[in-house]
Design brief:
single chain, about 850 residues, alpha+beta, Jelly Rolls, Immunoglobulin-like, eight-stranded mixed β-sheet, seven-stranded antiparallel β-sheet, 44 strands, about 30% strand, AB_hydrolase_fold
């Protein structure tokens, strides 16, 4: 593998193993001789090799490359517990080079010429002299998608943008890390950790490190000297009496310029239960005194629950990041209790601390959800602040200590930054969209937000969510930053008035959808694209949390009344674009599209495709008393004293004529507004799953319970199939008036007489279920008892049909990226020996 190229990847190597982890090779081992016998590992023409502990390991040359990652394909290998796989190859260079290595999801170690340079520890850089160099990778775990991008620092710097400079500054410059097997040292004599230099150019092995040991209160209880590249075995038993729970090691060293740098490490020396006992007593006292509001109670419980989750971990799984979290929540809890006792709100704690975790009880499924927030210094509710929302790749992406490390000392802008869940790898689709909108609503209710300066930022699935949500609601966002995420190509022009920062690797497997199509569609608008040279999808992950993108976003502002609008929608929920609202499209078409332009203060031109109706709120620039609106070539001159809100509806035998009509009095959902979302529209709101009150057999009960669990805990088709919701399941007799007013309901029934609620609605159902005797019908309609909410009804007189119907056997919710689903995005799915899907009006007409 030659470094004469600007960047290289390991695309050929000798694979040794899988093999039981060699004796003496613990997480902190940096000595290759404990693994291999020879100083120079010669593997040519060998099918096996003897390891230092006497094991004989299989050895074979591999050069199969994964087309997406551009890395060696390791899918033929599986590692069991305590097994290892080693890759051995060489790096060649004809001249001295400074080398930068960007890693993604490498769970293991990397040695070059016998020197340990990586230990599950992030990007690193070092110097290579001319010649051939031995590279060894040890895997503890194998991941399908991983990356090891090895590049010449001269190439990195020659292509340096402000973004790459930000990356080098945060992730590499003068960086030292601490590695440990576990942070759990309760009842231990020694706690071992390894001081690790990521920047070997400026902090070589042997750099002196001064270590100050502090207790929970921050008081110094010991100090000693170490150095980088050193394994430290610290006597915790001798000092454990000085602290209540943890010891904090402050490591101070001088960088290449003589400036002092600090990093830290934590060790747990007493059980976390000690902390919990004290916090529980504080909480119980607050309960006795009475809370001013339930929101404070929910948030304190959220903090306690996360500390309890760490306390319940096995010792080997207690890592430093978990202890940092306990420390953060412990301090936040004590601070919050004091303020609540003084009559303040929980949020005042976050304002005073400028950073913290808040919680809310989700209206979707009653779960306790959290958000992590960074607030500006001197935050005041009398002022409105820009809001930057970081969308996670999966359920959550950053814990509070990560948020502090990335942003607290670097976020000097007068803005609010927040991250919260979208319930998994949903890419902002269906449940993900509903969860996002709920989280945004919570933040806007609790904090003072400038609605003209709300921004989205995400990497990979988070970037797709940013694209999808902004394309659906372009008038709500001033800008988005998308890092290696695909956009829906047919809706790109929806973002013609939204600022877009788009960052993508040159070799990203999805570059067409992630970069080329957005650049072609939006290049003439408020768009900035950045290509990361010779980078794959996974190499760009390090850019997402840098300040460059946040500063870029904060320069943008939402236009109040854009002169030109472009909007395309394929479902009835997404229907507003700035000064045009209540857009509906013809049900026989899969989408509707509208382009509008304020040409002069007295002329608006609107061109539509498949649109049935819409409302116009006249921009301030328009002169209503002499305004003409041209719709699809038809000129409509407004009468004097016309309202600033105007509704237009297609009419005529073939829908060829536009007429001005009275405004819709209600802004709530329209009847049958599930067009485009179909049965999945049920997941856009709070849900309860309602089962029969009685069953004719245990088998019927078992089958219906299985279907209920399927819909109460839906899945998606991704690397993490979980959608982190769990909707309540109740019997019809347990349904309350509040449930009917607040919830969408999923009704599952065999015989109608066994289901009290369905029987009560029988005469008001859109489909007469008694006439569907031989089929299993699944359909969505407004709830007759509350038309603002939906019913998803799944019924069959023969309960065994539930085992035959595709979507009562298995439910996988797609993403918006998949386009219109042929079945799930229809309002009716029927199985009567064959599967049929249609919309409700067509189903009723054909019956």
């Amino acid at each position: 593998m030659s470094l004469e190229q600007e960047t290289v990847r390991i695309q050929a190597a000798y694979a040794i193993g899988p093999v039981r982890n060699p004796f003496g090779n613990d997480r902190l081992n940096d000595d290759l001789s404990r693994i291999f016998n020879q100083d120079r590992i010669c593997l040519e023409d060998r099918s096996s090799i003897a390891l230092a502990d006497g094991q004989i390991a299989e050895c074979r040359f591999i050069d199969s490359v994964n087309n997406e990652t551009k890395e060696l394909d390791l899918n033929d290998y599986t590692l069991c517990e305590n097994e290892r796989l080693f890759l051995v190859t060489t790096l060649k260079t004809t001249e001295a080079k400074d080398v930068c290595v960007r890693t993604f999801d490498i769970i293991g170690k990397i040695w070059v010429n016998g020197e340990l340079l990586f230990n599950k520890s992030g990007p690193f850089r070092f110097r290579l002299e001319p010649g051939e160099h031995l590279l060894v990778i040890e895997y503890f775990e194998l991941r399908v998608n991983y990356s090891i991008r090895i590049s010449d620092m001269a190439f990195e710097l020659s292509n340096a943008t402000e973004l790459t400079e930000d990356y080098l500054s945060y992730w590499l410059d003068q960086r030292v890390q601490v590695v440990s097997e576990s942070a759990y040292a309760v009842n231990s004599d020694l706690h071992a950790f390894y001081i690790f230099g990521a920047d070997r150019l400026n902090v070589p092995n042997g750099t002196p490190v001064s270590v100050i040991v502090a207790n929970d209160e921050g008081r110094t209880v010991d100090q000693f000297t170490a150095c980088t590249g050193m394994r430290v075995e610290y006597d915790v038993r001798a000092i454990s009496h000085e602290t209540y729970c943890m010891l904090r090691f402050h490591l101070m060293y001088a960088d290449a310029y003589g400036e002092s740098r600090v990093t830290d490490h934590l060790a747990l020396v007493h059980p976390i239960e000690n902390v919990l006992s004290n916090l529980d007593r504080q909480y119980e006292q607050l309960v006795l005194n009475g809370f001013r509001n339930e929101i404070d109670n929910i948030q304190l419980l959220g903090l306690l629950n996360r500390i309890r989750a760490v306390a319940a971990l096995e010792p080997a799984k207690v890592l430093v990041k978990q202890l940092r979290l306990v420390k953060e929540h412990w301090q936040e809890f004590v601070h919050a209790c004091r303020l609540i006792e003084e009559g303040h709100r929980f949020e005042d704690t976050l304002i005073e601390r400028r950073i913290g975790d808040g919680y809310y009880q989700s209206r979707l499924d009653d779960s306790l959800e959290r958000y992590s927030i960074v607030l500006p210094d001197g935050y005041s509710s009398d002022k409105q602040y820009p809001l930057v929302i970081l969308l996670p790749v999966c359920r959550y992406e950053l814990d509070l200590p990560d948020v502090r490390a990335f942003f607290q000392d670097r976020m000097d802008e007068d803005a609010i930054l927040v991250t919260f869940t979208c319930r998994g790898v949903t890419m902002g689709s269906y449940v993900g969209e509903a969860s996002f909108l709920e989280g945004l609503d919570v933040i806007q209710q609790r904090y003072s937000i400038d609605e003209d300066r709300i921004y989205l930022s995400g990497y990979s699935n988070g970037a797709f969510a940013a694209w999808a949500i902004a394309q659906a609601y372009p008038d709500r966002f001033a800008g988005i930053a998308a890092y290696a995420g695909s956009a829906s190509a047919d809706k790109l022009l929806n973002l013609s008035n939204v600022a877009v920062l788009n960052v993508c690797g040159e070799f990203d497997y999805a570059i067409e959808a992630s970069y080329k199509k957005p650049a072609a569609a939006l290049g003439g608008y408020r768009y900035q694209g950045i290509i990361d040279p010779q980078a794959t999808h996974w190499d760009t992950c390090y850019y997402h949390h840098l300040m460059y993108g946040i500063r870029w976003l904060l320069q943008q502002r939402r236009p109040e009344h854009p002169q030109r609008l472009h909007y395309r929608t394929d479902n009835a929920r997404h229907r507003k674009c700035y000064w045009i609202d209540h857009i509906t499209f013809a049900q026989e078409h899969p989408f509707g599209q509208l382009n509008a332009e304020l040409k002069t203060d007295s002329l608006i031109q609107i061109d539509t495709l498949h649109i049935d109706s819409f409302e116009v709120t006249l921009p301030r620039e328009a002169m209503a008393e002499r305004l003409t609106i041209i719709i699809d070539g038809q000129s409509i001159k407004l009468q004097p004293n016309t309202s600033s809100q105007i509704r237009f509806q297609k009419s005529g035998d073939e829908g060829s004529c536009w007429q001005q009509e009275a405004l819709i009095s209600s802004k709530g959902p329209l009847a049958y507004a599930s067009i485009g979302f179909g049965v999945l529209d049920i997941y856009m709101d709070r849900i309860k799953v309602v089962l029969p009150d009685r069953y004719d057999s245990l088998q019927e009960e078992s089958i219906i319970q299985r279907v209920a669990n399927l819909y109460a805990r839906p899945k998606n088709n991704s690397w993490d199939p979980n959608i982190y919701v769990h909707y309540p399941i109740i019997a019809a007799s347990e349904l309350t008036a509040a449930d009917i007013m607040q919830c969408n309901l999923i009704i599952i029934a065999g015989k109608m007489d066994n289901h009290g609620y369905l029987s009560m609605l029988h005469s008001q159902l859109s489909i007469d279920l008694t006439k569907q005797a031989d089929s299993c019908v699944q359909y969505i309609q407004p709830n007759p008892m509350n038309p603002q909410k939906k019913l998803l009804i799944m019924a069959s007189c023969n309960y065994e049909n539930f085992n035959k119907h595709m979507y009562t056997r298995k439910l996988t919710i797609p993403s918006y990226a998949s386009g219109i689903h042929p079945h799930l995005n229809k309002e009716v799915i029927q199985f009567n020996g064959r599967l049929q899907a249609t919309n409700l009006d067509q189903f009723i007409t054909t019956r």
